[in-house]
Structures are given as structure tokens and as C-alpha cells.
TrEMBL record:
It comes from Acidocella aquatica. The keyword Membrane applies. Keywords: Membrane, Transmembrane, Transmembrane helix. It comes from the Bacteria. This is ABC-2 type transport system permease protein.
């Protein structure tokens, strides 16, 4: 009856916990059917893409280069997610000390959690790459099925590295700063991928071609640096070597961390003394509205990853700046800037109001104040709207300087999408992680889907408003 839990039981329990924490499970009544439909659509698109790939085969060297680039990007994208996931499973759940006091061998718990993180970070990329692998296999390219074991093997290496980095960072800086490092890593990688995609707009074709030729392997790509790429292409010996290498790295990291995990020093590193008395102190504002407004803005600034997630959502400003400065010319002219800024306004508003709603740890305390319930909601809406408008002030000024005729339509669209998404986010906030450790995730994917839809509708309306002949080609004759 009291026999220590075996590895299979622990692994299934870890998978169950991770699955219960999935945003799909929390919103299954609304999301599972759309997810299945989207999955079938992706598989259909992959079949069409695979048909084109089979008709136009690439030489081995180019295939190896493509595989290497994919593995490189997957590695860094997985690593940033694995770092935050490792912090959550070690310090966020609050059950590690309880498990260490149980008769379960500590190393078994650590191994299960490392494998759980590996599976969680690999899942979206395995699903995305899997639809292409399935489609290629349908057309007789069975080698493409190597995508499944190779991405899982890469995730195992990433998880081992992430746990080692997290233990070191938490020991030096604490879990919150370590999580922030994971967010910054994701931000840097996302910006790098975006910049690489925009490189043809800034670099001459000759220089860009020379760059890719320098990366292109010669002949059948001899050398150790191409082993993993060949494994992704389904070559038996490189694939076997890649799997053995990933297992070796995992075992090495597990052995190195096992002693610290068993002694409890990993979890003990999470506890740090609180801030100074001066930082914890504060003064009430002149009135209730000002106090509640500042409380919501404080929640926003304290949210982990607020800077990186704001920058992610603001990448739309890169083409906007390029168009306004004349470095990028589009067929529709400067008018395309207006719908882009409207869409960005809606996404920022939805994000900010969701942070304020999800990060409030004591809504019942504010509800006990001698003010109307609608007063608190209005303060949150004003705070989120204020933060959004502060960020949008500079690009709007740029539109005014470049083409002031667009300003009335732009402001009308921004006002509409701002009010719509603030009201939506107050009722259906998007999925976010609470600011403090040990807190459950809040929000629903339905809010995220509806928010994108609302922003898109307002953007389309503004585009039609500033470009009256945008749909002229639909008219007969």
C-alpha cells in the first residue's frame, strides 16, 4: 500500500498535471472543436505543400542546410519555453518539498519532471512538423517521419540544458529574474527570426546570396556539424547518433542535478527575503479612483514578461516605421499603416486588461470598499486604455507627420477597437500566467480568438475607409 510510486505512475501523473494545466483543457467546451478543424486544415495544407516538394526535389546540400536552420530555430525557441516551464515545475507548484519528504526516490521525481518539460516544449513543434511529415510519407517520402524522433530528442537536450541553467540562475538571482531571463531569450530569438525574414528588404541580393552560399555544405555534407541535420532527413546512422547523444546529455544533466535536488538545495534557492521596507511602503492617492487606477498600473508593471510580450505584440511597428520613413513601399501606399495600427491597438488593449484582471490577487478586498462595483471595472478599463494609448502615441504622431489625411479614420478605428477589446478582455481575458508563483493560470482561449477577430474586423473596416477602391476588382466590368 505504501510502496513508492514507480516511474510509469509518476510519468503518467506528471503528464496528467501538465495536461490539466493546458489552456485547451481549461476551455475545452469552446476550443476543442475549432482545434480539430484547424488541425485538419493544417494537414490539408501540408498535403498540398508536400505535393510541391515532391515535384521539385532539392539537392542534398540544400536539404541539409534547411534542416540545420530548422533545428537551430527550434532549439532556441524550445529553450526559452523550457526555462519558464522548468521554473514552474520546480518552484511554481509548491509540491517539491512534499515529494522530497515522501518515500519516492528524489532522482525519480527529477527525471519525470525533466521528461515532462521536454514533452511539453516539443508538443507544438512535433504537431506542426508532424503534419508535414505525414503528408510527405503519403507521397512516398517515408524519411520525413524522422521529424518525430528528432524533435523529441532535441527537446530532451533542451530540457536538460534548461534545468541546469535554471538551477544556476535561481541560485544567483531568484526564480522571478530567472523566468525573466527566459522571456528575454524568447524575445531575442523572435526578433532575430523576424529580422532574418526581413533581410531581403535591407541587403542587396548579391550579399544575401553570398551569405547563404557560405552556409551551404559541400557534396554530401561531410562533418560532424551536419550529423543532426542528416538525422532529421532520416539517414539511419545520423539519426541513431542523434538519439544516443540526446540520451547521454539528459543522463549527464540528471546525474549532476540529482544530488542537489535530493538535498533540497534546488528548492531552497527559491526562497529569498522580501524587498526593503522603503519599497514595500506606499501612500494612498487623493481619491479612490486615482488609487484604484495606480493599483492597476502597478499590477501591469509587476507582471512577469510584460516588456517582452508587449514587444512581441508591437513587432507590427517595424513595417509601419519602414513605410512611414519611405524605406518600404507597398502597392496600397501609406494607407496600409492605418489598419496595422488599429490591429496593434486592439491586441495591446486586450493584453493589458487581461493582465490587470488576471493579476489581481485580492478582488474581494477591493469589492469591500465603499464604492460601486462598476467603479472598479471602470478604473481597470481606464488604466488599460491609458497604457495602450501611451504606447500608440508615437506611431500616431508619425502618421500625422507623414499623411495627416489618414488621422480621422485612424483615430476612429483605434477608438472602436480599443473599446471593443477592453470590454471583451474584462469579461473573457486571454490566457496568462499569474504574476506570483503557485498561482493558477487565468483566461480563456476563446477571448484570444475573439480578440484577434475583433481587431481584424476593425482593421478591415479602417482599410476600406482609407482605401475606397480597395475592392474595385470585385465589381463587374
Amino acid at each position: 500500500m505504501f510502496k513508492p510510486a514507480g516511474f510509469p505512475w509518476l510519468f503518467l501523473n506528471e503528464a496528467r498535471v501538465l495536461w490539466r494545466g493546458s489552456i485547451l483543457v481549461r476551455t475545452h467546451k469552446y476550443v476543442l472543436a475549432p482545434v480539430i478543424i484547424v488541425g485538419l486544415m493544417f494537414q490539408g495544407i501540408a498535403l498540398a505543400l508536400a505535393a510541391q516538394i515532391v515535384r521539385h526535389p532539392l539537392p542534398l546540400g540544400q536539404m541539409v542546410l534547411v534542416a540545420d536552420l530548422n533545428l537551430f530555430f527550434f532549439f532556441w525557441l524550445m529553450l526559452s519555453r523550457a526555462m519558464t516551464a522548468a521554473i514552474d515545475v520546480l518552484y511554481g507548484r509548491g509540491d517539491v518539498d512534499f515529494l522530497l519528504a515522501s518515500p519516492i526516490p528524489p532522482g525519480r521525481v527529477l527525471a519525470v519532471r525533466m521528461l515532462g518539460v521536454a514533452g511539453s516544449v516539443a508538443a507544438p513543434w512535433v504537431l506542426l512538423g508532424g503534419v508535414l511529415a505525414n503528408a510527405l510519407a503519403v507521397f512516398g517520402q517515408a524519411w520525413a517521419l524522422a521529424i518525430y524522433p528528432m524533435l523529441l530528442a532535441e527537446a530532451v537536450v533542451v530540457a536538460a540544458l534548461a534545468f541546469a541553467l535554471v538551477v544556476l540562475l535561481v541560485g544567483w538571482t531568484g526564480p522571478k529574474l530567472a523566468r525573466r531571463a527566459g522571456h528575454m531569450l524568447a524575445l531575442v530569438m523572435g526578433v532575430f527570426i523576424f529580422a532574418l525574414g526581413q533581410a531581403p528588404r535591407f541587403l542587396p541580393p548579391a550579399a544575401l546570396g553570398h551569405f547563404w552560399l557560405a552556409l551551404l555544405p559541400a557534396g554530401d555534407a561531410p562533418g560532424l556539424q551536419y550529423v543532426f541535420a542528416k538525422g532529421l532527413l532520416g539517414q539511419p546512422w545520423p539519426l541513431a547518433f542523434s538519439l544516443v547523444f540526446s540520451g547521454t546529455v539528459f543522463l549527464f544533466a540528471w546525474v549532476m542535478l540529482d544530488a542537489r535536488f535530493a538535498s533540497g538545495t534546488i528548492t531552497a534557492a527559491a526562497y529569498r527575503p522580501g524587498g526593503s521596507a522603503a519599497r514595500q511602503g506606499g501612500a494612498f492617492r487623493a481619491g479612490p479612483f486615482a488609487a484604484v487606477l495606480m493599483k492597476n498600473l502597478r499590477l501591469l508593471t509587476r507582471f512577469p514578461g510584460v516588456v517582452t510580450q508587449t514587444v512581441y505584440r508591437s513587432l507590427t511597428l517595424v513595417p509601419v516605421v519602414m513605410i512611414l520613413t519611405g524605406r518600404l513601399r507597398t502597392g496600397s501606399g501609406v494607407e496600409i499603416v492605418a489598419p496595422l495600427l488599429v490591429f496593434l491597438t486592439g491586441q495591446l488593449a486586450l493584453f493589458f486588461i487581461s493582465v490587470m484582471v488576471g493579476s489581481d490577487e485580492s478582488p474581494e478586498l477591493a469589492a469591500s470598499a465603499p464604492v460601486a462595483p462598476g467603479f472598479l471595472r471602470r478604473a481597470a478599463l481606464v488604466a488599460a486604455g491609458y497604457a495602450t494609448l501611451v504606447l500608440m502615441a508615437l506611431p500616431v504622431t508619425g502618421v500625422l507627420a507623414r499623411d495627416g489625411v489618414l488621422l480621422p479614420s485612424l483615430l476612429l478605428g483605434m477608438a472602436g477597437v480599443l473599446v471593443s477589446n477592453l470590454a471583451l478582455g474584462l469579461r473573457l481575458p486571454i490566457p496568462l500566467v499569474r504574476a506570483d508563483f503557485g498561482k493558477a493560470q487565468t483566461g480563456t482561449v476563446l477571448g484570444l480568438i475573439l480578440g484577434v477577430g475583433v481587431s481584424s474586423v476593425w482593421s478591415l473596416a479602417v482599410w476600406l475607409l482609407v482605401t475606397p477602391r480597395a475592392l474595385w476588382w470585385l465589381l463587374p466590368g
